[in-house]
Every structure is written in C-alpha cells, then in structure tokens.
Specification:
Thioredoxin-like_sf, alpha+beta, 5 helices, 7-stranded mixed β-sheet
Length: 211
Amino acid sequence: MKKTVVLVVLFILPIVAYLFFASGINNFGKLPVLTENIPDITDVDANILLQDKITILGFLGSDLENKKGVAFNLNQKIYKRFYEFNDFQFVMVVPKGSESKVEALKSELGNLADVVKWNFVYGDKEQIQALFDALKTDLTLDGNMATPYVFIVDKDRNLRGRTNDEDEGTKFGFDATSVADLNNKMEDDVKIILAEYRLALKKNNAERKNL
C-alpha cells in the first residue's frame, strides 16, 4: 500500500499537474479579440498612435474633477505596475477645452508616479463618439463624453477582453471605479497580453538565430 502511494505521489501527480497547467496555458494564454481594426486616432491627434502599442484606452470626459477617482485608481492599480514595459501606454480621450484640467490632473498624478506614458487626446464630441462607437461594446458614454470603463487595445488595434467572464459573459472593458475589477480582472488580463507579446518576441528572436 505504501509503495502504491509513493508511486502515485512521485509519478502520477506530477503528470496530472502538468496536464492541468498545460490546459490552463492553452485556454487562457491569449485574450480573446472582441473587435478588430479599431481606427487609429491620428485624425484626433497626429502625435499619438494606437498601432504597435499596447494601449489602455479611456474616455474621461469633460468633468475631470469627478473623474479623479477613476484616474487615481488606474494610476495606482494598473499604470504603476506596467508602465515600464516597452510599447505600453495609457491614452485618455477628453473633449477639447479640457487642457487646463488635464494639466492639473497630470500634476497630481505626477506626485505618485512618472506620468510619461499618460497620454491625453483632445477631440470634439463627434470624434470622441465615433472612436467610442468603433469599439462596438455594449457600453455608452454619458453627457460629458465619459465612461468609467477602460479598454485594452493590442498592437494591431484590436479590442481585447473576455468572452466567458463569470459576471458579465462578454467583458469589453474594466470598471475603473471598482478596485476589485482592476485588481481581480484587469491586472490579470494586462499580464496575459504582455506575456503574449513577450513570448512572440522570444519566438521571433529564436527563429532569427536559427536562420
């Protein structure tokens, strides 16, 4: 009996563990693409691009005083953990005329982290609505052209999210007013997409060495 238990522990359990984790990698190794080919934002700001960047895209609207909680949550829970990765950026879309409010917000955020990858894009209402509509989500902007939800956009300008979220089913964005949503879901999903690109880079480098 003891020999049987020892054999199970030494040989069978490691195989079961391997199969479990291998299955997890296959099922959760990539974030599903929810919307393809989101238009770039060069028509709004020629200096900021979504193409070839991993972007956290948000719509803070004109009432930035009431969106400070959203910005600070994102800054602390997501931005500070990931901003040093190459090709990672935040892009926050706000209405034209919000420049002084943005500078004040960036100043406050700058007391907590280097805001070098916090980018703000200024558009008119039609431009902002068109960009938001291009995401093809089940969410809406309010009267200030804002939403508390933020979105993960990959280097090919595809919206990434979840198709089998336990709470929402299809999850297009992450509620930045909810620390739980940022900690329990968004942080994990950002890690996944960063790992996805790191693995692709390693594979490309290995293939080049073998040429």
